[in-house]
Amino acid sequence: MNCLWCEAEGAKIEKNTVYWELPDGTRSIEITETPCVKCENCLMEYQEEDVITNIEDQLLLIDTNKIDDSISFHHLMKQPRLLKRNYFNF
Questions:
Q1: Measuring CA to CA, which residue among 75, 61, 5 is closest to residue 38?
Q2: pLDDT tens per residue, range 40-87
Q3: How far is CA 76 from CA 1, 39, 56, 70, in A?
Q4: How far apart are CA 1 and CA 6, in angstroms?
Q5: Distance separating alpha carbons of residues 7 and 17, to the nearest angstrom
Q6: Dihedral sign of CA atoms 5, 30, 73, 49 in order
Q7: Who's near 11: CB < 8 A, 6+ residues apart?
Q8: DSSP character string of 25-41
Q9: What is the predicted pLDDT for the residue at 87?
Q10: Cβ(60)–Cβ(24) under 8 Å?
Q11: Is 60 exceeded by the pLDDT of residue 9?
Q12: Ranges of each domain in the chain
């Protein structure tokens, strides 16, 4: 896999911790074990677009009052949705 930042080969899929502001802006949460790309060449760690979209959509579609300040990516994605999908994402 090539790194999107430095374009070097050898980037790997790993997991890291990210911090995300909730859509309503009331607080931020820690999301552990989030899939990421890690580049040994430039040391950049980043989330791919589909992971970002999944997190943002899920946070829009669940009752964020029911989640703690820290949650794993897996548990976040398993939270029951209030709507089936994000109807505002065209």
A1: 5
A2: 999 999 999 999 999 999 999 999 999 999 999 999 999 999 877 766
A3: 27, 25, 11, 10
A4: 12
A5: 23
A6: negative
A7: 1, 2, 3, 37, 38, 39, 40, 41
A8: SS-EEEEEEEEEEE-TT
A9: 66
A10: no
A11: yes
A12: 12-78
Are the C-beta atoms of residues 67 and 60 closer than 8 Å to each other? Answer: no
- Spatial distance between the Cα atoms of 59 and 23, rounded to a whole number of angstroms: 7
85 to 23, 25, 36, 58, 76: CA distances (angstroms): 15, 21, 23, 8, 15
Which amino acid belongs to residue 56? Answer: E
CB 26 within 8 A of CB 65: no
Element (H, E) at 19: strand 12-21
Residue 56's φ and ψ, nearest 5 degrees, are -65, -45
